Every structure is written in C-alpha cells, then in structure tokens.
Amino acid sequence: MTTVMQVASRFLLVWLIAYFFPTTVAQSPAYTSMLLAWSVTEVVRYSYFAVNLAYGGVPFWLTWVRYNAFFVLYPLGIGSAYVLFTHMMAQRKKVLRSLREKKDV
Q1: Which positions, given as ranges, span the membrane (predicted)?
Q2: How far apart are the first and last CA of the chain?
Q3: Were both Cys, which of 20, 24, 54, 92 would link to 67 (CB 3.0–4.6 Å)?
C-alpha cells in the first residue's frame, strides 16, 4: 500500500500539476528540488537492490544511506505523505536494529 501511495503522489504531482502548468513548474525551484530528491532516492534504492542481488549482501554504508537519506530527501521532495515517512521510520528502526545485533554477535 505504501508503494501505491508513493507512486500515486508522484503521478498526481507530475501529471495533474506539472502537465497542466508547465511554465509555472519550469520556473519553480520547488519542482526542481522535488525531482532532484526523487532522483537521488531512486539511485540509492536501486543501488541497494543491485548490490544486494549482485553480491548477496550490502555494505554497511549503503544500508545506512538507504535508511537515513529520507530524513533529508522526503521533506525536500514535498510529495511524501505522513504515512510514507512513518513507514520509513519503522523500516529504519527494524533494519538498523538487526544490523546492530549482527555486529554484536
């Protein structure tokens, strides 16, 4: 459901706002920062998945970036809903706790 909400929010922002008001968004630093945040988010996310598939694991630094970058990128992206933010908080807590437990063993 969170993926549906994420895709829907991006769809609404791009097609229902940007499409109908192209001169407004072309001049808007908010639109540019939103696209930048989305782009960085996807690069981090798919790098994480690719490294995991290719090597069977992910280095700590990439895991840390994957589960902490949203603190900056979600507010910057202005399109994320409260539900997505709290979902990432829960995911961060779960993943970082398991990494800490593995490290302590």
Answers
A1: 69-90
A2: 35
A3: 92
CA dist., res. 2 & res. 87, Å (int) = 8
Buried (b) or exposed (e) across 96-105, using 16+ Cβ within 10 A?
eeeeeeeeee
Contacts of 51 (CB under 8 A, 6+ apart): 57, 58, 59, 62
Residue whose structure tokens are 């807590």: 93
The pair of three-digit structure tokens given for residue 43, joined into one six-digit string? 């690069």
Rounded CA gap, 64 and 82, in Å?
22
Which DSSP helix (H) or strand (E) runs through 50?
A: helix 29-55
In this predicted model, what pLDDT tens digit does every residue of 18-68 receive, in sequence order?
788 787 777 777 777 888 888 999 999 999 999 999 999 999 999 999 999
